[in-house]
Amino acid sequence: MTGMESLVYEFAGTRCVAAFAPVLVGVVGSGNLEVLVEPAAAAISRYSVETSARGFGAIWEAVLRDFHERHHFNGLSVSINDMGATPAVVSLRLDQAAAGLKEATP
Amino acid sequence: MSTSFAECSARERVARLLDRESFEEWLPPSARVMSPHLAQLGVPSAFDDGVVIGRGRLAGRAVFIAAQEGEFMGGGVGEVHGAKLVGLMQRALRDRPAAVLLLAESGGVRLHEANAGLIAVSEVMRALLDVRAAGIPVVVLIGGANGCFGGMGIVARCADRVVMSDNGRLAMSGPEVIEASHGVEEFDSRDRALVWRTTGGKHRFLSGDCDVLVDDDVQAFRDAAIDAIGHANALTLDGLEREHALLAARLRDAPEGADAVALWRQLGIRDAERVPDLDAAEVRALVAN
User: Fold this and answer.
1) Which of B70-79, B133-142, B191-200, B253-262 comes out lowest in average pLDDT?
2) Residue B23 placed within a domain
3) What CATH number is associated with residue A18?
4) A4 has a chain B CB within 8 A of its CB
5) Helices (H), B8-160
6) Per DSSP, what are the bridge partners of residue A103?
7) pLDDT, tens digit (0-9, with 9 covering 90-100), for B133-153
8) ipTM of the assembly?
9) For chain B, what is the domain count?
10) Would you say residue A42 lies in a domain?
């Protein structure tokens, strides 16, 4: 039996995110995923992935890095439960979750 | 513009059914109260274990609400999922909301969790009956693509009122289960028209198992839920005996080898063969006359 694969990535950004309530988008269904975005007191953003599709770490890293470079937010904790979503679906869900986030005003 | 209830996620249904911005969730995804079983089996878990619970307002009245997410494991009831439903009902006994709404979409017990899931469903039934006994109406709303089957089908029929759209389905055994145990001659689960004639909202409405038939529209479900407030159906011995007599008569009088159309005809429905082509308002009119 193959289990789930756990992946963690951390990226440093340039923008601090303004305070926000946790956001959940998507559903853990076939070819879909849920993305939970929470605030974290950190100078980086952290992405934790639990996926049923093992062996795609390099693609996850590319998709998450691409998202991070679109927004450059620090202080995000992004948790993902995945059931075999394609990279395009993952990108759309991440942007959907980030749609309401704003940069903190200094 | 109308919004399809079937195409909404559980969270979208809750947000759109209640008064705007009134929903307060208990054990939200960020609390991470998740299944202890699925990860051990190498199966993906969900942060809310596939059910959203909390309180909000419906036309200004305080209500409790639960919504099952059919896309996650077919809405299957696991240990945590069931415990969230039970906790909601038990809190209703203390806080006395105007109603408890259950947006059911489930294949029944989540088989991965076996006995824990079975026990959870039986606890939901007991908790629901306690809420009814306290005079608080429990309203089950069914309109998701996965229908409401197995233990959740029984839970639905324990409620004060059942609201369905014509693409909602309600039954004990699902079509595939019946075909697997009794053969394709008994029931062809791939015959979608047959499946909906036998388990769909129109059939349940005509046979009296569903109290309100609505269009597949969130606003229509909301209106039906508002209408249900203040209509608690006392659970009495007389009521149960009437129900038993009705079920016995249905079994005794069922036409031999019958399709649902023959049953509708026997129930005195005019133009029974036209029912599958009618919309919800036209089906309601058949019964009103």
Assistant:
1) B253-262
2) yes
3) 3.30.230
4) yes
5) 10-17, 79-95, 114-133, 150-158
6) A17
7) 999 999 999 999 999 999 999
8) 0.93
9) 1
10) yes
